[in-house]
Write a structure and sequence with these properties.
The protein is 35% helix and 14% strand. It is an alpha/beta fold and 354 residues long. The strands form 2 sheets. A 7-stranded parallel beta sheet has the order 8-7-6-9-10-11-12, with helices on both faces. Strand 6 (157-161), helix 7 (165-178) and strand 7 form a beta-alpha-beta unit. The protein is elongated. Keywords: NAD, Oxidoreductase. Residues 119-297 form the D-isomer specific 2-hydroxyacid dehydrogenase NAD-binding domain.
């Protein structure tokens, strides 16, 4: 058994209090709640002794508490960080790997929520529900219901960029409910696996040219940052809609605004922005054919509870020396294992992949 009681820290709150309930009174770890309002020096003092750091979601997370190299340098006992949801772009994975710090996420816990949100945006755009609602609320607006003619999505083509856990569920809904043709661009999956996920493997160019709806479901990373810009939007049909429920920064917001302004695409459904929440004068919010939500795709009662439960279970496993699920950087395990043994006084169990 450990000679040290591991300390797990988090700021403000978990997305569901069930996690605190699960962890608060355990004998095998110390749960410490930090407050952004506390003097920074005091928070750093506590963080310096932390073994685990549950990182708050990007929208709520504040400087200087991002999971970057600067934070790692000031936390010599830190063994692991875990993101709140599936995304972990606010944690510097390379810096963690170099320091022997594991990075975990909660991939899969909000799959249904985000897939349904993307489907909702697609339906609302195609049926022009958002525009109709806005016109009904404008005093003196002329309402011509035939001018609000929309389209059925049945039998249309949807292009999915990244057909991982969420993209796969979105493809299942589109194919199964509406008989849609599913095209998928994903460099990490072969054609046979994509076919098992109800899609046909294509490159990005073909996907953009052929799809009536383009939906983004890939993580934000070095290879996907600004992946969709003016050249990519120029490939889309003028009748096509663009949807992003993944991460801000994957699409160039100015380029998307220009494509909408010049009517090169029919509209967009955006749940994620480079800066969140976006300011009221954000260019994309000025368009009637844009539906925008403040990164709420994964914010459902069911998803938040599952995120919290999964993270709590993950920490119990990890801080007790067992390989946790959903490790983002398994290549860090050898260095992590050596550091864990030196800090905690016993070696962690060797995972099958190490």
């Amino acid at each position: 058994m450990s000679t040290n009681r591991p300390r797990l820290v988090f700021f403000d709150s978990w997305v569901d209090s069930i996690a605190e309930t699960m962890l608060r009174d355990r004998d095998d770890l110390e749960l410490v709640k930090l407050d952004y309002a506390t003097p920074e020096a005091r928070n750093w003092q506590i963080m310096a002794g932390a073994h685990g750091y549950q990182v708050q979601a990007r929208t709520e997370l504040r400087e200087p508490w991002f999971g970057d190299a600067a934070l790692i340098a000031r936390c010599p006992n830190l063994l692991a960080m875990s993101s709140t949801g599936a995304g972990y772009d606010y944690i510097d994975v390379d810096a963690c790997t170099a320091a022997g710090v594991l990075v975990c996420n909660q991939g899969g816990t909000n799959t249904e929520a985000v897939a349904e949100h993307a489907l909702g945006l697609m339906l609302a755009l195609s049926k022009r529900i958002g525009l109709a609602d806005k016109l009904l609320r404008r005093p003196g607006a002329a309402i011509d219901r035939y001018a609000l003619q929309g389209n059925d999505i049945h039998g249309k083509t949807v292009g999915i960029i990244g057909i991982g856990t969420i993209g796969r569920r979105f493809a299942e809904l589109c194919h199964g409910l509406f008989g849609m043709t599913v095209l998928a661009c994903d460099p990490y999956l072969d054609a046979d696996e994509i076919a098992r996920r109800h899609g046909r493997k294509v490159d990005l160019g073909e996907l953009l040219r052929s799809s009536d709806y383009v939906s983004v479901h890939c993580p934000r990373s070095k290879e996907t940052l600004d992946m969709l810009g003016a050249a990519e939007f120029a490939l889309m049909k003028p009748t096509a809609y663009f949807i992003n429920t993944a991460r801000g920064g994957i699409h160039d917001e100015e380029a998307l605004a220009a494509a909408l302004r010049e009517r090169r695409i029919a509209g967009a459904g955006i749940d994620v922005f480079l800066k969140e929440p976006p300011p009221p004068d954000h260019p994309l919010l000025a368009f009637d054919n844009v539906l925008a939500t403040p990164h709420t795709g994964g914010i459902t009662e069911e998803a938040l509870r599952q995120m919290a439960v999964s993270a709590a279970e993950q920490w119990i496993e990890l801080l007790n020396g067992r390989a946790p699920p959903r490790i983002v950087n398994p290549e860090a395990w050898p260095d992590f294992s050596r550091r864990f043994a030196a800090i905690m006084g016993f070696a962690p169990e060797r995972p099958a992949y190490a």
